[in-house]
Specification:
With 266 residues, the protein is an alpha/beta fold. The protein has a single domain, classed as Vaccinia Virus protein VP39 (Rossmann fold). 37% of the residues lie in helices and 21% in strands. It is built from 9 helices and 8 strands. It has an 8-stranded mixed beta sheet. Strand 1, helix 3 and strand 2 form a beta-alpha-beta unit. Helix 6 packs across helix 8. The longest helix has 21 residues. It starts with 10 loop residues before the first helix and ends with a helix.
């Protein structure tokens, strides 16, 4: 449960991304690092979710019938590929501009994705629960990390999985993700990241356990300059992804999770 009145939304961060909303689907614009990162993220998410639900990740639609929530969905860069993999996707964002762009692009792509202008804590206050919950590259932008992790965890149905991606608070991350990416290479607009908000893996894992989840895999994501792409590895010093799961049980929450899955738009 999240604390009453706790808000995870940083209005300044929402405004920053609202100003870039029209560029979400431009692979050469300010979102180009996410476009470059997307193949690695999608493959990891597909495999992690498929493994959790004993699916064959090599099948054309391995996530068929599973409900997936993308918190901080932006323009839908993750939602659309996950929908094509068979998932019933709900994307939420606090920015009206991003949601408008996401809805328009999904319509152009003939995809049925349920986009909502809302927050994790507002959604968690209801009964909706999801097989997989994603919080990718948003952790370092929230106003209240404890409340955000608690809300994201609360949205995971029994037996479900939560995947988070963020930046480690290390000297390497400061040099590469802030100084390098924003000031030297110009990959991101200056001021995109505040190094003080980066989260060490142990700090994130502790919060996930406190929220009742079992912490699983943690994998590093590194840019490979020789091949100009991204890859996974054991080095968590800059970008990393972490999974956590909720134990399977036959509690009343299981039924509520099923009802939420049936109630979503298809």
């Amino acid at each position: 449960m999240t604390e009453a009145g706790a808000s995870t939304v940083d209005a300044a961060e929402v405004a920053r991304f609202a100003a870039l909303a029209e560029t979400w689907w431009d692979p050469r614009g300010p979102m180009r690092p996410l476009h470059a990162l997307n193949p690695v993220r999608i493959a990891y998410l597909r495999d992690a979710i498929a493994a959790r639900f004993a699916r064959d990740a090599t099948m054309p639609r391995p996530l068929s019938g599973l409900t997936v929530l993308d918190i901080g969905c932006g323009g839908g860069l993750l939602c659309e590929p996950l929908s094509r993999l068979g998932a019933r996707v709900v994307g939420i964002d606090a920015g009206a501009e991003a949601i408008a762009v996401a809805r328009a692009h999904a319509a152009e792509s003939d995809l049925e994705i349920d986009y909502r202008e809302t927050t994790a804590e507002a959604l968690a206050a209801g009964e909706a629960r999801f097989d997989a919950v994603l919080a990718m590259e948003i952790v370092e932008h929230v106003a209240d990390l404890d409340a955000f992790v608690a809300a994201a965890a609360a949205l995971v149905a029994p037996g479900g999985i939560l995947v988070m991606a963020t930046l480690n608070r290390t000297a390497q991350a400061l040099a590469l993700a802030v100084v390098g990416a924003e000031y030297l290479l110009g990959w991101l607009p200056r001021g995109t990241h505040d190094w003080r908000r980066f989260v060490r893996p142990a700090e994130l894992a502790r919060r996930l356990r406190r929220a009742g989840l079992t912490v699983g895999d943690a994998v590093g994501v590194r840019y490979r300059p020789l091949t100009a792409d991204w890859g996974l590895g054991r080095d968590l010093s800059v970008n990393y992804m972490m999974t956590a799961t909720r134990p399977r049980c036959a509690s009343p929450l299981s039924r509520r999770g099923g009802e939420a899955r049936e109630g979503g738009r298809r």
